[in-house]
Amino acid sequence: MLHLFHLEYILTKLLNAASEVSDINLTVGHPMQVESGGELIPVFFQPEIRALTAYQTEALALSLLRGDRHLINTLMDTGSCDLAFNLENKARFRVNIFTQQGRYSIVMRKLENYIRSIDDLGLPKTFVNMAKEKNGIVLVTGATGTGKTTTLAAILDEINSSQAVHVVTLEDPVEFIHSPKMSTFNQRELGTDFRNFSEGLRSALRQAPKVILVGEMRDRETVEMALSAAETGHLVFSTLHTVDAGTTVNRIIGLFDHDEEKLIRVRLADTLRWVVSQRLLPKIGGGRVAALEIMGASLLIKDIIANGEQPDKTFYGAIESMQPLGFQTFDQHILELFGSKQINEETARTFSSKKNVMNRGIDNLKALAGESIYELDSLTLEPNEEEEAAAQMAAQMAAAQAVAAQPAPGQQQGAGPYHHPPAAGRG
Question: Which of 102, 262, 324, 412 holds its CA 20 to 30 A away from the CA of 351?
Fold first, then answer.
């Protein structure tokens, strides 16, 4: 176990190793690494550590655990644990310690020291409407590291700045500390303040909140409790690891038995208010930008949730057609980012949901800008290819002339096309 001073020295050096460090990665067999702009960068110390040993990562892990029995037991029982770590006056981290092949690895996500507002993040005004909802469920989805927690913190900050309500958060671990403004926040941490999300959510219903944040919907019981909370007049925010809005709905329904599907569809159609899905794309010139898919609770969306998708009624098509209401597909937003020169063409095509839609959109934008959408200008024939092409053309012309010179069936040699035999004399 390292002395706290040594741990803080190591983390400070890692943070200063590159601009905009988002993660620290400590894995046996590799040097210490930081992630910046989506890429891992090795960081070397003196004396030089070319590859971390199992003993070194275990010492770092124990230093981060700080003797917490609950976290140690969780790590022993499940093979991983989550915690928050404060580097005084420098940074705050969400830490995951886990075992791989019997050895410890550590990933530390750097958290913002302050909560960025909806405007700071450049999010659409639709997010202000999400903060104004009085009940129902709002979901923010996406892969790990796409900024779901940051987005939710911005929405809760909007509530904190505009409404005098009681907010209870259930987090694993607590990441952003909401300072007192208009709202009263009680932020509870998994393992320290409650045992699991469903149990914490059940307790939250007895704590008179208007708004509840559930860190993640991990199982059927948590989803069922969230639906019940929304149905009883609470506004529930949560996250899921799904790739888009349609998949989110299907994932929730898939947690329940087949004979419960119809009832769950009806309940979800009544309570789901918004689904926001996020992807982080590499920007031109460095850094990353968020692409967002936004689906609200229109009558058409409610119908698709309740009755399922049909060939002429899909989540993608419904979202695409309702852009004036603040809805947007990933492809619509990615095209907007491409049109504003924030991302390049390859990135736009790679991260799109429907390749054919993206290809058409890119071609249209390039045509409007007066750019060529075909790369044929530089095509030339080799000398031997030119000879073969000329020979083929000559042969085709000769064949066409030969066919034209032959008489039509039933026509006499040399007769014109309108020649008729003389009429027979009358008797």
Answer: 324
